[in-house]
Amino acid sequence: MSTSTIHDIGYRHYDGRRNGRAYVLRSLYVHNLRAAFGLGRPARAKVMPFLLAAIMLVPAAGSVAAFAFSKEPDALIRYSSYVNIMQVIVAIFLATQAPVLASREVRFHVIPLYFSRPVGHLDFVLAKGAALATALLTLMAVPVTVLYLGGLITKMPDSGEQLLKYLGALVGCLLYALVLAAIGMVIAAFTPRRGFGVAAVIAVYLISATVVGVIQGIADAETNFTLQGWAGLFTPFNLVDIVQVRLLGAQSSSPGVAPGVGGGVVALALCALIVVGSIAVLYRRFRKAGLS
């Protein structure tokens, strides 16, 4: 006969500080931002984001060096055009990192564990979206800043005008980051396997860019410049470029730009609709995944 003993160790209440919703939201944001650059993960997870970030810097550094030797203003790439010129690299970064933030928890069915704690569904979506947008903003804004600082160091004329152009380009980078993060997160959230998510984001980018490019080419051949400009609303890089040109006074870096201030307002409204709509879609998606 064996005997058993029950030890009454009591229940110890937590009397420490409760950090609240803001702390939870900040922690989720920082965790996802680190994940976007592979920090806190194996070394192979860091290769792609940091390689792409380095590639983004190369043209900026080369442009500054060319301007330093030639002193020709045209040698320095326009701040507002830099993202559009490097859009393929930005798209690859989005395609490879959006699934890291949006699909892993769905695939491994761990979202209910997040919501077993005091984490709201909207907080979960906002933290992930803001983290990806911040990662994209960093990717794009750093080389633009290198262009600006390099121009200042090498005695770019009209420093006041250059500052305004630089600030306008930063606003453009923010719009690019918000729109691209919104689109990438939605696509990745519905493709639980990372490989499929990468392929889906790239496919959406290539298809939209190709179709719009064909339409704009035909419109240009037919001298229908109005159609050529409005067609740019249907691909994200041209969409934000319209806002930059019509509302921020930048020079166009797209084949066609929607006419007038009205075109810029429509493009900005569409950007806002994409961001808000993505939040609504992701809210429903993660809420459903949290119940499964």
UniProtKB/TrEMBL annotation:
Superkingdom of the source species: Bacteria
The organism of origin for this protein: Actinomadura chokoriensis
Record's keyword terms, sorted: Membrane, Transmembrane, Transmembrane helix
Transmembrane recorded as keyword: yes
Name used for this protein in its record: ABC transporter permease
TM regions (residue ranges): 47-69, 81-102, 130-154, 166-190, 196-218, 261-283
